Amino acid sequence: MQDLTGAGVVERLRKAWCDRVPVRCHGMQGLAWLAPSGSRIGLAVLFGVALGLGLVFWARRLLPRMMRPALASFRRGQRTALKDLREHLRVIFQNSPEGILMFTPEGCITSCNPAIGLMFGRDPALLRGTSVAALLEPLARLSAQGSMPALRSVPREAIAFRGAGEAFPVDLRVSEVSHAGKPRFIAVVRDISDRKQAETRLTYLTHYDSLTGLPNRSLFRDRLAQAMARVRGRGDRLALIFLDLDRFKTINEALGHEVGDRLLKQVAAELERELGSDRAEDGAPAISLSRLGGDEFTVIAEGIPTTDAAAQIARRILAVLVTPFELGGPALHISASIGVTVYPDASAGLDADDLIRQADLAMYRAKERGRNTYFFYNEALNREMAERHALEARLRQAVDQNAFHLHFQPKADLASGAIVGVEALLRWNSGDQPPIGPDRFVPILEETGLIIPVGEWVLDAACAQLAAWRAEGQPPLRLAVNFSARQFQHETLPDMVAQTLARHGLAPELLEVELTESTLMEDREAGQRILSRLAAMGTSLAIDDFGTGHSSLAYLRRFKVNTLKIDRSFVSDIPGDPEGSAIAGAILGMAASLGIQVVAEGVETEAQVHFLKRHGCDQLQGYLLSRPLAPDDFAAWLRAYRGLPLAGAWI
User: Fold this and answer.
1) Whether the Cβ atoms of residue 531 and residue 491 lie closer than 8 Å to each other
2) Under a CB-based contact definition with an 8 Å cutoff, are residues 309 and 346 in contact?
3) 594-635, pLDDT tens digit by residue?
4) Which residues, at least 6 apart from 254, have a Cβ–Cβ distance to it below 8 Å?
5) How far apart are alpha carbons 535 and 651 in whole angstroms?
6) Are 553 and 579 in contact (CB under 8 A)?
7) Burial level of 523, CB count in 10 A (0-12/13-18/19+)?
């Protein structure tokens, strides 16, 4: 047998290769002869090449057959995905709440969705082929100009037209696209009629009073500034008139806010009827009537020839209010206090704020003179304002020098006569000057912000005094301290109160926080947060001068009021005045139904005590019991106290 490594074997393999391998692969057989003839290495090379070329050959024949199913599956998946995408886009197009339409550069609509039909009140199928200019005002303008492609200038907010020609506002967005190789435009349209109505309503509410429809404080100030500018330009005069309805709060509380609102609406209507027809020659209103809020109205009278003309307008206003107002019940008789200032006569060189202050000051002087009258701002009032500024300077000095002190007024339980509480009252030692009451200096402290340091001092001094009395063996009393609206603008107030109580070793339950109704209503959210923190500490809340502000059952529940203090203006009228007695009785009945304690302020007579006891009042405070006393005098009075003096007996 011939050696397997011999030339015969190699020759036979070469021949077999050439017989079976395709002719295009024969060139590779030369690789078999790279090694020496008949060597084992040559044989190995030959077999390796043969194997590789065979794999290539069969791969080229078999691979397409093997990949064909996979390629078919991939193509089916692509077709399904494309179909799903088209369906997805169709659903979006058909169900979009915003109108979508496609049109040519010439403005011809090629397609639109159902939302367009609903928006414009037309069948979408009938819109195809029509001009988009018939639907959208900006596109109609561009079409008329022959510049339909220049759509970059189309505003976002535009006017559209329904089938019947009704115009309505829309939000319009236009973009350029290519569809089937042709230029197209897509417009997305959204009806913004509701939004525009809301904006119009908001603008109205921003500038007009929602109750009376008159210009509000904001628009009034704007009109006053414009009127002053016109007057300066023309060289003539205007009168600013402030009017405040007399005793409106009493009517409001006695008959309810609904009646009060109806009265305000009728007053506004009557004033408009009397004054609103006046017009200046240039077409601008000679009379501009506004409502600032509550029962305060203003009148701007432009172009008045003399101050007598302003006085005549004031007299016309008073005459209008003389007629009783019929509101479905007993006729209501009201009047007004009117303040007048003339620009530039009494106010040359001043701005609108100065003019407002002048008219307001004159109005309060009219109230002081007995109401149902008018008063002109004059130099005397100007001197009064100067005195006020001087008083403010003295107050600032008093704060620096700690020139304040406290008096204390007791509160007694009406059932037992026992002293159960004490109110700390601020007094100012003005040195050689005549005494100045808190009704004069406290408002200035609040306006200037000095009430913040003074209020902290009051709380600290009152707590120190209460702690001293307890150390002397006096019975425990609840301490009432007044807090101002300015103090309630500071979120740190509860921390200051807690630190003060702790410093003097007093339990929070011994402190009663007194606030006026107006303080609660200034910033309800902030007030509620601060009061919640104070209540969580254990302090109680009392509403001072109840009935003189914005009395409301809602805030009594919301702020968790513990005590109501009936204002002395109502107490002084009982029991002789039916209206005052009705108001006091109503407050007591309401408080009893809500479980709120009531303190009557300004009690001076036995008749008042009997009335209050009969109607369920809990506590009293007033001169019948004691005047406000200095600390040592109060301690002496408390040691000597035996009970309420009624008909010569102590109870």
Assistant:
1) no
2) no
3) 899 999 999 999 999 999 999 999 999 999 999 999 999 999
4) 579, 582, 583, 586
5) 34
6) no
7) middle
